[in-house]
């Protein structure tokens, strides 16, 4: 990659950082603890890939539903030594208020609140783990876009001094986000790092295109934004979080977010200063979902738009086309004082080929895959 291309890649990030360029003082919460919405900073790194910088032998990424390379997943005895976390829960469907009339980031398209119908569907109980994604890669030979591009973004707090010395580019508005050569799902912090001790953590550095391929392989799909938000709300109307409005129910942490002054220090009061296992923390609502907010951002099907009306919506699937895809749920880098986007109504966006160290996925399905209907011991 030439110097001019690297500069273009980094400059493009400035246009896509999570919620950073759009918020203003007028869009802050009236609450004194609202995020720093005026700041041109983001708690999620958004990267618009420079296609010309990609390796010549790599395929051009496409935001479509092409089939994965080999075959659909079928349970095989002994196919993984790790505990399976591919279970799904049934979401009953219904009508709810999507969005909010009291947006924290109005420019993100959080409002207005609109009545929205969602049909019953199934959703992964857990975020897709490294162990589950490894099955996909081992059985298909799939290559993620971060691997094809040769780099991905990582927060500098998690990088060694040796790695940081090799990096000459950074994002002016968010200098803690660094493009790290060799960073991908298998090497979360770049060359020389591994998944040791993290197989039950959510897979990261996965693009929307990677997520689509994985979900199709397991006989599932990505949830629509409406489905994700319906599931997040857990049957509660106009609440901030899946369980209600209390950040720490009964004084306990129910999600993995940033504690302390961002970005200088994460005190890890919730037990984690980076990603947490997909099984960590209590079930966040009556649907039994884990980490539907916090831990990592999660992709949805929808193209991004900030233009919404109060008209009734029946199973909306977003615009027919666009530049960015919607992600939901916030991540371990979100905090109320900085990037308050782990609320059910909150949202952000990335280009379909973007990847970062706080971006993962969870799958949905209209019908439960047959291999999950009556799980045998050798399947789970």
Describe the structure.
The protein is of the alpha+beta class and 380 residues long. The protein has 7 helices and 12 strands. It has helices at 3-14, 130-140, 145-149, 161-165, 208-217, 225-233, 370-373; strands at 88-91, 94-98, 114-118, 121-124, 151-155, 177-181, 297-303, 313-314, 325-328, 348-350, 359-360, 364-365. The strands form 4 sheets. Strands 10-9-7-11 form a 4-stranded mixed β-sheet. The protein is globular, with a radius of gyration of 19 Å. Residues 27-41, 48-64 have a biased composition (Basic and acidic residues). This is Sulfatase-modifying factor enzyme-like domain-containing protein. Keywords: Signal.
Question: In a few lines, what is going on in this structure?
Answer:
By secondary structure, the protein is α+β, with helices and mostly antiparallel strands.
Tags for this model:
13% strand; 380 residues; four-stranded mixed beta sheet; alpha+beta; three-stranded antiparallel beta sheet
How far apart the termini lie comes to 44 Å
- Could you report the average pLDDT, rounded to the nearest whole number? 85
**Biggest sheet architecture:** 4 strands, mixed
Helix/strand order, N-terminal first? HEEEEHHEHEHHEEEEEEH
What topology, given as strand order, has the largest sheet? 10-9-7-11
Number of strands: 12
- In percent, how helical is the residue content? 10-25%
Low-confidence stretches: 1-41, 50-70
**Discrete helix count:** 7
Structural class: alpha+beta
Global outline: globular
Strand content: 5-15%
Biased composition (Basic and acidic residues): 27-41, 48-64
Family: Belongs to the sulfatase-modifying factor family.
Organism: Littorina saxatilis
Signal peptide: 1-23
């Amino acid at each position: 990659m030439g110097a001019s291309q690297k500069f273009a890649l980094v400059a493009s990030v400035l246009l896509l950082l999570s919620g950073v360029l759009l918020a203003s003082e007028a869009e802050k919460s009236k609450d004194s603890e609202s995020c720093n919405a005026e700041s041109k900073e983001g708690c999620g790194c958004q990267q618009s890939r420079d296609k010309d910088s990609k390796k010549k032998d790599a395929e051009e990424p496409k935001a479509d539903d092409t089939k994965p390379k080999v075959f659909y997943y079928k349970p095989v005895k002994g196919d993984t030594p790790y505990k399976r976390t591919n279970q799904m829960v049934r979401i009953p469907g219904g009508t709810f208020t999507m969005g909010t009339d009291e947006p924290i980031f109005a420019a993100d398209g959080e409002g207005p609140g609109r009545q929205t119908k969602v049909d019953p569907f199934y959703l992964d109980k857990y975020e897709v783990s490294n162990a589950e994604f490894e099955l996909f890669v081992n059985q298909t030979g799939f290559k993620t876009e971060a691997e094809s591009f040769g780099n991905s973004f990582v927060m500098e707090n998690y990088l060694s001094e040796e790695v940081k010395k090799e990096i000459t580019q950074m994002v002016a508005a968010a200098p803690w986000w660094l493009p790290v050569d060799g960073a991908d799902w298998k090497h979360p912090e770049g060359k020389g790092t591994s998944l040791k001790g993290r197989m039950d953590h959510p897979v990261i550095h996965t693009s929307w295109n990677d997520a689509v391929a994985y979900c199709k392989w397991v006989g599932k799909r990505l949830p629509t934004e409406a489905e994700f938000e319906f599931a997040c709300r857990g049957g509660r109307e106009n609440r901030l979080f899946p369980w209600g409005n209390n950040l720490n129910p009964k004084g306990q942490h129910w999600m993995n977010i940033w504690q302390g002054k961002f970005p200088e220090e994460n005190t890890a009061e919730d037990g984690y200063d980076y990603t947490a296992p997909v099984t960590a923390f209590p079930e966040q609502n009556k649907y039994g979902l884990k980490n539907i907010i916090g831990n990592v951002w999660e992709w949805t099907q929808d193209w991004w738009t900030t233009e919404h009306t109060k008209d009734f919506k029946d199973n909306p699937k977003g615009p027919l086309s666009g530049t960015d895809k919607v992600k939901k749920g916030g991540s371990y880098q979100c905090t109320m004082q900085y990037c308050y986007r782990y609320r059910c109504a909150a949202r952000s966006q990335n280009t379909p080929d973007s990847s970062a160290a706080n971006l993962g996925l969870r799958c949905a399905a209209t019908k439960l895959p047959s291999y999950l209907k009556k799980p045998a011991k050798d399947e789970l």
